[in-house]
Amino acid sequence: MFTGIVEELGQVTAVEDLGDSSRFRLRGPAVTEGAKHGDSIAVNGVCLTVVDLDEGEFTADVMAETLDRSSLGALVPGSRVNLERPMAVGDRLGGHIVQGHVDGTGTIVDRKTSENWEIVKVSLPADLTRYVVEKGSITVDGVSLTVVDAGPDYFTISLIPTTLALTTLGIKQPGDPVNLEVDVIAKYVERLLTSGAHESGGPVR
Asked: Chain centroid to CA 36: how far?
């Protein structure tokens, strides 16, 4: 489990096409410190397994399903990525509960700059709109954020200078894809309510 608090702005150093999967090599001295084979590291919000470590870099295999459902397939050597290690038991939950399981991708639609922050508009896939609410939580490229406005096919987020400086959201431009993970609590609530309705033969009141 992750919290959506990015620890390091890393970089892709190599991508190997394996046909039905890809092997990524990424540089992240902070997140690889103390890491070992089999550990998890979130890359732009996608939970990946470390298969090799070498001097501040790690290698991870990415299956076709992950490439299809996320923006990782667009990464090339030199791409910057958000990196986060899993939360340790007893740590503070600084963001919100993040699984590292991407629900879909959106696209940066617009950026509006002010003196101390930026408002970023992101397109939202139709099947995810019901999980996104004003002032609710959403993960964008692995960053835990609060929804400012939730529209029928978009949402907006407000980015403070720290987020702009220390994550990929400071450099992504309109047209760039981003990974989205909605609040898992919303999905469980929907499932429970739907199951209850089916079992009772009618809507849950």
From this structure: 22
For the full predicted model, state whether its pTM sits above 0.85. Answer: yes
- Looking at residue 10, its pLDDT comes to 97
Q: How many CA atoms lie within 13 A of 63 on its CB side?
A: 5
Per-residue HEC secondary structure of 41-55 comes to EEECCEEEEEEEEEC
Q: Say how many domains are in the chain.
A: 2
Q: How far apart are CA 130 and CA 79, in angstroms?
A: 32
- pLDDT recorded at residue 197: 54
Weakly modelled stretches of the chain, pLDDT under 50: 202-205
> Residue 175's domain spans which residues?
104-189
Cα angle at 34 between 29 and 38, to 5 degrees? 100
Q: What stretches of the chain adopt beta strand conformation (E)?
A: 8-17, 21-27, 40-43, 46-54, 57-63, 80-84, 104-113, 118-123, 137-140, 143-150, 154-159, 177-182
| DSSP 8-state code for residue 2 | B
The confidence score (pLDDT) of residue 175 equals 97
Element (H, E) at 161: helix 161-166
| 61 and 108 co-located in one domain | no
At 56, list the tokens: 């501040």
Residue 195 falls within a domain, yes or no? no
